[in-house]
Amino acid sequence: MQRHQRSFFGQKVGMIFDSGKWDEDYAYLTFLRKKNDGTWEKPTLKEGKYVKLNLGELILFRKVLDGTSERWSTVHSFNGTKTTISIQKHAQNSGEIWINVDTYGKNLRSPETDILEMLLKHIIKEKIVRATVRKVIDS
What is the pTM of this model? Predict the structure, then answer.
């Protein structure tokens, strides 16, 4: 597969993981919130929050999922806007994680965390093979 997508929706907040193309060393997370009128924010209307994670960040994200790390956080700056990103294990339940991107928070528990961990493991391996090769430009 050249691209993978997986949605994780709850009652109020949804997260969409998009691997991007397998020869690009980044992936995307889109967060959407349910509005007061019961409809969901629409990315096509520039609603929600969208972040791009590089290969190193994907690896650090996965370390929280697999239990190697308890927490990971970073700040992205794009066009003068800063976005905080953090992922942490729940202290009382190691099978649950909390993902926070700007004002969007998403709780995931098993089997969602298992699916996301397996997906990240596969995608990281795929991107290491395909996104780190030298690209030859024809003249």
Answer: 0.90
